[in-house]
Fold:
Amino acid sequence: MNQCQKVAKPTGLDSILESEEVIKTMSKGNFSGEYVHSLDSKGRVIVPIRHRDEGSDEYYIVKGLDPCLYIYCKEDLDALSERMSENTNLLDQDHRILMRYLMGSRKPGEIDKQGRMLIPQNLREHAHLTKEVMLVGVGERIEVWDKQRYDEYNANLDISAIAAKLAANGVSL
Structure:
């Protein structure tokens, strides 16, 4: 089944990245699960077979908002870029900064015949990727973390408090 699919453009967004509606409508893909892999000497990582799109090898890597990278299918990143452009007020510096941050770091991420994706050096440095990496399927994207940083990040989370805060804002599980 094709992980990446064309999606309808959402309307009436209050927030580009924080809206639950964006996450629900951005992708029909279903990336999920956590996978530990190693970077090889050339900076390539194996993408889990369940995340490889059978019909396409068009993926893009961008800087993540956390200390990680995001891998998007071309269609999903194009849809995100379009929504961000439509909802960006060029007079608002924060919008310009976020657009530049995400889209300025956009690099093609082709998967070779062995299922590996090359992660460019500047993006490896951004996410502090060393030898062991964690690939995390998060619905419309795959996050790529340094495994040690991912473990440390998660050790300090209070999921119950986060869920309660989101529930207070109308987002429920």
